[in-house]
Amino acid sequence: MSKILVIDDEEWLREMIRLALEQQHYEVIEAGNSAEGVALAREALPELIICDVNMDKAGDGYTTLSKLREDAATAAIPFILMTGLADSAGMRHGMELGADDYLPKPFKVDELYATVNARLRKVRTVREEAEKKLTLLRSQISLMLPHEMRTPLNGIISNSELLAESAESLDPQTIAEMSREICESGQRLERLIENFLIYAQLEIVGSDASSITALRSACTNRVAEIIRSTAMGQAEKVGRLENLVLDLAETTLPMAEDYFKKIVAELVQNALKFSDAGTPVRVSIKLAGNEIEFSVSDTGRGFSTEQIRRIGAYIQFERKMQDDQGFGLGLAIAKKLVELHGGTLTIESGSGTGSTVTCKLSAAPRN
Predict the structure, then answer these.
(1) What is the mean pLDDT of residues 346-367?
(2) Structural domains of the chain ordered from first start
(3) φ/ψ of residue 208, rounded to 5
(4) What is the phi-psi region of residue 187: left when phi exceeds 0, alpha when psi lies from -120 to 50, beta otherwise?
(5) Residue 318 pLDDT > 60
(6) Which of 7, 100, 127, 163 could pair with 31 as two cysteines, CB 3.0-4.6 Å apart?
(7) Which residues contact 273 (CB under 8 A, 6 or more apart)?
(8) pLDDT tens, 291-317?
(9) What are φ and ψ of residue 343, in 5° steps?
(10) Cα-only R_g, the chain
Protein backbone atom coordinates (compact mmCIF):
# COMPACT_ATOMS: atom_id res chain seq x y z
CA MET A 1 0.00 0.00 0.00
CA SER A 2 1.52 3.31 -1.11
CA LYS A 3 1.80 6.01 1.56
CA ILE A 4 0.84 9.57 0.56
CA LEU A 5 1.44 12.73 2.61
CA VAL A 6 -1.08 15.58 2.20
CA ILE A 7 0.02 19.03 3.42
CA ASP A 8 -2.66 21.75 3.56
CA ASP A 9 -3.90 24.21 6.19
CA GLU A 10 -7.55 23.57 5.29
CA GLU A 11 -8.75 20.57 7.28
CA TRP A 12 -11.82 19.94 5.13
CA LEU A 13 -9.70 19.67 1.99
CA ARG A 14 -7.23 17.29 3.64
CA GLU A 15 -10.15 15.12 4.76
CA MET A 16 -11.70 15.12 1.30
CA ILE A 17 -8.39 14.08 -0.30
CA ARG A 18 -7.80 11.43 2.37
CA LEU A 19 -11.23 9.86 1.92
CA ALA A 20 -10.88 9.87 -1.87
CA LEU A 21 -7.41 8.28 -1.83
CA GLU A 22 -8.38 5.70 0.79
CA GLN A 23 -11.10 4.58 -1.62
CA GLN A 24 -8.19 3.66 -3.93
CA HIS A 25 -6.49 1.78 -1.07
CA TYR A 26 -3.76 4.35 -0.44
CA GLU A 27 -2.51 5.06 3.07
CA VAL A 28 -2.83 8.81 3.75
CA ILE A 29 -1.07 10.88 6.41
CA GLU A 30 -1.77 14.58 6.97
CA ALA A 31 0.02 17.77 7.99
CA GLY A 32 -1.57 21.19 8.57
CA ASN A 33 1.40 23.43 7.82
CA SER A 34 4.83 23.55 6.22
CA ALA A 35 6.92 22.81 9.33
CA GLU A 36 4.72 19.85 10.30
CA GLY A 37 4.80 18.58 6.73
CA VAL A 38 8.59 18.69 6.47
CA ALA A 39 8.98 16.87 9.81
CA LEU A 40 6.41 14.20 8.86
CA ALA A 41 7.97 13.67 5.42
CA ARG A 42 11.40 13.08 6.98
CA GLU A 43 9.94 10.70 9.54
CA ALA A 44 7.49 8.69 7.41
CA LEU A 45 9.24 8.86 3.99
CA PRO A 46 6.02 8.64 1.93
CA GLU A 47 5.94 7.51 -1.70
CA LEU A 48 4.26 10.79 -2.74
CA ILE A 49 3.61 14.27 -1.31
CA ILE A 50 0.68 16.54 -2.19
CA CYS A 51 1.15 20.08 -0.88
CA ASP A 52 -0.76 23.38 -1.14
CA VAL A 53 1.24 26.34 -2.46
CA ASN A 54 -0.28 28.97 -0.12
CA MET A 55 -0.93 28.01 3.49
CA ASP A 56 -0.20 30.12 6.59
CA LYS A 57 2.00 32.27 4.38
CA ALA A 58 1.97 32.83 0.64
CA GLY A 59 4.46 30.48 -1.02
CA ASP A 60 4.67 28.07 1.95
CA GLY A 61 4.43 25.17 -0.50
CA TYR A 62 7.56 26.35 -2.30
CA THR A 63 9.40 26.58 1.05
CA THR A 64 8.29 23.05 1.93
CA LEU A 65 9.44 21.73 -1.44
CA SER A 66 12.79 23.50 -1.21
CA LYS A 67 13.53 22.10 2.26
CA LEU A 68 12.66 18.54 1.24
CA ARG A 69 14.72 18.71 -1.95
CA GLU A 70 17.76 19.78 0.11
CA ASP A 71 17.50 16.66 2.30
CA ALA A 72 18.99 13.51 0.75
CA ALA A 73 16.37 11.30 2.44
CA THR A 74 13.43 13.16 0.87
CA ALA A 75 14.97 14.69 -2.28
CA ALA A 76 13.61 12.04 -4.65
CA ILE A 77 10.05 11.79 -3.29
CA PRO A 78 7.55 12.85 -6.02
CA PHE A 79 5.99 16.21 -5.08
CA ILE A 80 2.67 17.57 -6.38
CA LEU A 81 1.78 21.22 -5.75
CA MET A 82 -1.87 22.27 -5.36
CA THR A 83 -2.78 25.86 -6.20
CA GLY A 84 -5.72 27.99 -7.16
CA LEU A 85 -3.33 30.38 -8.93
CA ALA A 86 -1.68 28.15 -11.52
CA ASP A 87 0.03 31.00 -13.36
CA SER A 88 2.95 30.18 -15.64
CA ALA A 89 5.52 32.04 -13.50
CA GLY A 90 4.46 30.18 -10.34
CA MET A 91 4.46 26.84 -12.13
CA ARG A 92 7.91 27.52 -13.57
CA HIS A 93 9.21 28.47 -10.11
CA GLY A 94 7.83 25.25 -8.66
CA MET A 95 9.38 23.15 -11.40
CA GLU A 96 12.73 24.87 -10.88
CA LEU A 97 12.58 23.88 -7.21
CA GLY A 98 11.89 20.27 -8.19
CA ALA A 99 8.09 19.88 -8.29
CA ASP A 100 6.91 16.90 -10.32
CA ASP A 101 3.38 18.05 -11.14
CA TYR A 102 0.64 20.64 -10.49
CA LEU A 103 -2.95 20.07 -9.40
CA PRO A 104 -5.03 23.23 -10.06
CA LYS A 105 -7.82 24.04 -7.55
CA PRO A 106 -10.66 23.32 -7.66
CA PHE A 107 -10.18 19.78 -8.99
CA LYS A 108 -12.42 16.78 -9.46
CA VAL A 109 -11.76 13.46 -7.76
CA ASP A 110 -11.00 11.87 -11.13
CA GLU A 111 -8.31 14.53 -11.75
CA LEU A 112 -6.80 13.80 -8.33
CA TYR A 113 -6.70 10.07 -9.13
CA ALA A 114 -5.17 10.65 -12.56
CA THR A 115 -2.40 12.91 -11.21
CA VAL A 116 -1.55 10.65 -8.26
CA ASN A 117 -1.62 7.45 -10.30
CA ALA A 118 0.58 8.95 -13.03
CA ARG A 119 3.26 9.99 -10.51
CA LEU A 120 3.25 6.64 -8.71
CA ARG A 121 3.39 4.72 -11.99
CA LYS A 122 6.50 6.69 -12.92
CA VAL A 123 8.09 5.84 -9.55
CA ARG A 124 7.32 2.15 -10.05
CA THR A 125 8.75 2.25 -13.58
CA VAL A 126 12.00 3.79 -12.33
CA ARG A 127 12.29 1.19 -9.58
CA GLU A 128 11.60 -1.65 -12.00
CA GLU A 129 14.27 -0.34 -14.40
CA ALA A 130 16.75 -0.08 -11.54
CA GLU A 131 15.96 -3.64 -10.48
CA LYS A 132 16.42 -4.88 -14.05
CA LYS A 133 19.83 -3.21 -14.20
CA LEU A 134 20.89 -4.73 -10.89
CA THR A 135 19.62 -8.17 -11.97
CA LEU A 136 21.59 -7.90 -15.23
CA LEU A 137 24.63 -6.73 -13.27
CA ARG A 138 24.40 -9.72 -10.92
CA SER A 139 24.04 -12.07 -13.89
CA GLN A 140 27.04 -10.60 -15.71
CA ILE A 141 29.16 -10.72 -12.57
CA SER A 142 28.29 -14.35 -11.88
CA LEU A 143 29.29 -15.31 -15.43
CA MET A 144 32.46 -13.24 -15.82
CA LEU A 145 33.96 -12.71 -12.37
CA PRO A 146 35.17 -16.29 -11.65
CA HIS A 147 37.00 -16.56 -15.00
CA GLU A 148 38.53 -13.08 -14.87
CA MET A 149 39.75 -13.47 -11.31
CA ARG A 150 41.17 -16.93 -11.94
CA THR A 151 43.73 -15.75 -14.51
CA PRO A 152 45.79 -13.48 -12.22
CA LEU A 153 45.20 -15.81 -9.26
CA ASN A 154 46.74 -18.69 -11.20
CA GLY A 155 49.87 -16.62 -11.73
CA ILE A 156 50.07 -15.70 -8.07
CA ILE A 157 49.43 -19.22 -6.75
CA SER A 158 51.65 -21.14 -9.18
CA ASN A 159 54.66 -18.82 -8.74
CA SER A 160 54.32 -18.60 -4.97
CA GLU A 161 54.00 -22.41 -4.66
CA LEU A 162 57.14 -22.89 -6.74
CA LEU A 163 59.02 -20.36 -4.63
CA ALA A 164 57.89 -22.02 -1.40
CA GLU A 165 58.85 -25.52 -2.58
CA SER A 166 62.02 -24.86 -4.59
CA ALA A 167 63.48 -21.55 -3.43
CA GLU A 168 66.81 -23.14 -2.42
CA SER A 169 67.40 -24.56 -5.90
CA LEU A 170 66.47 -21.40 -7.81
CA ASP A 171 68.99 -18.75 -8.82
CA PRO A 172 68.41 -15.11 -7.72
CA GLN A 173 67.47 -13.98 -11.22
CA THR A 174 64.69 -16.59 -11.48
CA ILE A 175 63.41 -15.71 -8.01
CA ALA A 176 63.33 -12.02 -8.94
CA GLU A 177 61.46 -12.77 -12.18
CA MET A 178 58.87 -14.94 -10.41
CA SER A 179 58.41 -12.26 -7.75
CA ARG A 180 57.74 -9.67 -10.43
CA GLU A 181 55.13 -11.94 -12.00
CA ILE A 182 53.43 -12.34 -8.61
CA CYS A 183 53.45 -8.57 -8.14
CA GLU A 184 52.05 -7.91 -11.63
CA SER A 185 49.31 -10.50 -11.17
CA GLY A 186 48.41 -8.99 -7.79
CA GLN A 187 48.20 -5.51 -9.29
CA ARG A 188 46.03 -6.83 -12.14
CA LEU A 189 43.71 -8.48 -9.63
CA GLU A 190 43.58 -5.33 -7.50
CA ARG A 191 42.56 -3.21 -10.51
CA LEU A 192 39.96 -5.78 -11.54
CA ILE A 193 38.34 -5.73 -8.09
CA GLU A 194 38.56 -1.93 -7.91
CA ASN A 195 36.83 -1.50 -11.28
CA PHE A 196 34.18 -4.05 -10.41
CA LEU A 197 33.37 -2.21 -7.15
CA ILE A 198 33.35 1.21 -8.86
CA TYR A 199 31.02 0.06 -11.63
CA ALA A 200 28.63 -1.61 -9.17
CA GLN A 201 28.59 1.60 -7.10
CA LEU A 202 27.85 3.73 -10.19
CA GLU A 203 24.96 1.46 -11.17
CA ILE A 204 23.40 2.05 -7.75
CA VAL A 205 24.07 5.81 -7.85
CA GLY A 206 22.51 6.02 -11.31
CA SER A 207 19.18 4.67 -10.04
CA ASP A 208 18.83 7.28 -7.25
CA ALA A 209 18.05 10.92 -8.09
CA SER A 210 19.39 12.31 -4.80
CA SER A 211 22.71 10.51 -5.27
CA ILE A 212 23.06 11.94 -8.79
CA THR A 213 22.37 15.43 -7.44
CA ALA A 214 25.05 15.00 -4.77
CA LEU A 215 27.48 13.65 -7.37
CA ARG A 216 27.04 16.71 -9.60
CA SER A 217 27.63 19.18 -6.76
CA ALA A 218 31.40 18.49 -6.65
CA CYS A 219 34.01 20.70 -8.30
CA THR A 220 37.69 20.20 -9.19
CA ASN A 221 40.40 22.82 -9.75
CA ARG A 222 43.98 22.25 -11.05
CA VAL A 223 42.52 20.18 -13.91
CA ALA A 224 45.55 20.54 -16.23
CA GLU A 225 47.91 19.48 -13.45
CA ILE A 226 45.73 16.44 -12.64
CA ILE A 227 45.66 15.33 -16.28
CA ARG A 228 49.43 15.82 -16.67
CA SER A 229 50.41 13.81 -13.58
CA THR A 230 47.85 11.03 -14.21
CA ALA A 231 48.67 10.63 -17.91
CA MET A 232 52.43 10.69 -17.29
CA GLY A 233 52.04 8.09 -14.56
CA GLN A 234 50.25 5.73 -16.97
CA ALA A 235 52.80 6.31 -19.74
CA GLU A 236 55.73 5.80 -17.40
CA LYS A 237 54.42 2.38 -16.36
CA VAL A 238 54.76 1.09 -19.92
CA GLY A 239 57.89 3.02 -20.87
CA ARG A 240 56.16 5.38 -23.31
CA LEU A 241 56.60 8.76 -21.65
CA GLU A 242 58.12 10.19 -24.83
CA ASN A 243 54.97 9.22 -26.82
CA LEU A 244 52.71 11.43 -24.72
CA VAL A 245 51.57 14.70 -26.36
CA LEU A 246 49.77 17.07 -23.98
CA ASP A 247 47.67 20.12 -24.91
CA LEU A 248 46.11 21.28 -21.66
CA ALA A 249 44.15 24.45 -20.97
CA GLU A 250 43.53 25.25 -17.32
CA THR A 251 39.88 25.12 -16.28
CA THR A 252 37.53 24.14 -13.45
CA LEU A 253 35.61 20.89 -13.81
CA PRO A 254 32.18 20.06 -12.27
CA MET A 255 33.27 16.62 -11.01
CA ALA A 256 35.03 15.18 -7.96
CA GLU A 257 38.81 14.91 -8.40
CA ASP A 258 38.98 11.14 -7.79
CA TYR A 259 36.34 10.45 -10.44
CA PHE A 260 38.06 12.67 -13.00
CA LYS A 261 41.42 10.98 -12.30
CA LYS A 262 39.72 7.65 -12.94
CA ILE A 263 38.45 8.80 -16.33
CA VAL A 264 41.88 10.13 -17.34
CA ALA A 265 43.67 6.98 -16.17
CA GLU A 266 41.32 4.58 -17.97
CA LEU A 267 41.27 6.46 -21.28
CA VAL A 268 45.03 7.04 -21.37
CA GLN A 269 45.74 3.44 -20.34
CA ASN A 270 43.50 2.13 -23.15
CA ALA A 271 45.19 4.41 -25.71
CA LEU A 272 48.62 3.16 -24.64
CA LYS A 273 47.52 -0.48 -24.53
CA PHE A 274 45.96 -0.51 -28.00
CA SER A 275 48.64 1.46 -29.88
CA ASP A 276 52.25 0.64 -30.77
CA ALA A 277 55.28 1.95 -28.93
CA GLY A 278 56.74 4.97 -30.71
CA THR A 279 53.35 6.27 -31.90
CA PRO A 280 51.81 9.39 -30.29
CA VAL A 281 49.05 9.39 -27.68
CA ARG A 282 47.50 12.86 -27.60
CA VAL A 283 45.71 14.14 -24.51
CA SER A 284 43.93 17.51 -24.53
CA ILE A 285 41.42 19.59 -22.63
CA LYS A 286 39.86 22.84 -23.78
CA LEU A 287 36.93 25.15 -23.11
CA ALA A 288 34.58 25.33 -26.10
CA GLY A 289 31.79 27.79 -25.41
CA ASN A 290 29.90 26.52 -22.37
CA GLU A 291 31.42 23.05 -22.63
CA ILE A 292 34.65 21.45 -21.47
CA GLU A 293 36.10 18.95 -23.96
CA PHE A 294 38.58 16.35 -22.74
CA SER A 295 39.95 13.97 -25.39
CA VAL A 296 42.47 11.15 -25.76
CA SER A 297 43.66 10.05 -29.24
CA ASP A 298 45.88 7.24 -30.50
CA THR A 299 46.83 5.67 -33.84
CA GLY A 300 46.28 2.08 -32.76
CA ARG A 301 44.02 -0.73 -33.92
CA GLY A 302 40.81 1.21 -33.20
CA PHE A 303 37.23 0.00 -32.84
CA SER A 304 34.78 -1.10 -35.49
CA THR A 305 31.34 0.55 -35.66
CA GLU A 306 29.77 -2.55 -34.12
CA GLN A 307 32.27 -2.61 -31.26
CA ILE A 308 31.56 1.04 -30.44
CA ARG A 309 27.84 0.30 -30.39
CA ARG A 310 28.36 -2.56 -27.94
CA ILE A 311 30.55 -0.71 -25.45
CA GLY A 312 29.40 -1.55 -21.95
CA ALA A 313 30.37 -3.32 -18.78
CA TYR A 314 31.92 -6.79 -19.05
CA ILE A 315 32.35 -6.58 -22.83
CA GLN A 316 35.91 -7.15 -23.99
CA PHE A 317 36.56 -7.01 -27.73
CA GLU A 318 38.50 -9.73 -29.53
CA ARG A 319 39.44 -11.41 -26.26
CA LYS A 320 40.72 -14.63 -27.86
CA MET A 321 42.84 -12.78 -30.40
CA GLN A 322 44.27 -10.10 -28.14
CA ASP A 323 44.33 -11.98 -24.80
CA ASP A 324 44.06 -8.78 -22.75
CA GLN A 325 43.38 -9.02 -19.05
CA GLY A 326 40.38 -7.57 -17.27
CA PHE A 327 36.67 -7.07 -17.61
CA GLY A 328 36.89 -4.34 -20.24
CA LEU A 329 35.28 -2.15 -17.62
CA GLY A 330 37.56 0.89 -17.98
CA LEU A 331 35.79 2.50 -20.92
CA ALA A 332 32.37 1.61 -19.52
CA ILE A 333 33.27 3.26 -16.19
CA ALA A 334 34.47 6.43 -17.93
CA LYS A 335 31.27 6.57 -20.01
CA LYS A 336 29.07 5.99 -16.98
CA LEU A 337 30.83 8.69 -14.95
CA VAL A 338 30.54 11.28 -17.71
CA GLU A 339 26.85 10.53 -18.29
CA LEU A 340 26.04 10.64 -14.56
CA HIS A 341 27.49 14.16 -14.57
CA GLY A 342 25.19 15.18 -17.42
CA GLY A 343 27.83 14.91 -20.16
CA THR A 344 28.54 12.73 -23.18
CA LEU A 345 31.35 10.37 -24.17
CA THR A 346 31.84 9.75 -27.88
CA ILE A 347 34.30 7.64 -29.86
CA GLU A 348 35.57 8.38 -33.35
CA SER A 349 37.36 5.31 -34.63
CA GLY A 350 37.81 2.80 -37.38
CA SER A 351 39.39 -0.63 -37.29
CA GLY A 352 43.13 -0.13 -37.77
CA THR A 353 42.95 3.68 -37.92
CA GLY A 354 43.16 4.65 -34.25
CA SER A 355 40.63 6.19 -31.90
CA THR A 356 39.68 9.50 -30.36
CA VAL A 357 37.59 9.40 -27.20
CA THR A 358 35.99 12.75 -26.31
CA CYS A 359 34.24 13.62 -23.06
CA LYS A 360 32.04 16.74 -23.02
CA LEU A 361 30.79 18.32 -19.80
CA SER A 362 29.08 21.60 -19.02
CA ALA A 363 31.59 24.14 -17.72
CA ALA A 364 31.55 24.70 -13.97
CA PRO A 365 30.07 28.07 -13.02
CA ARG A 366 32.68 30.74 -12.40
CA ASN A 367 32.66 32.55 -9.07
Answers:
(1) 79
(2) 3-107 (3.40.50.2300), 129-207 (1.10.287.130), 211-367 (3.30.565.10)
(3) -130, 115
(4) alpha
(5) no
(6) 7
(7) 238, 324
(8) 999 999 999 877 766 666 656 544 444
(9) -105, -170
(10) 27
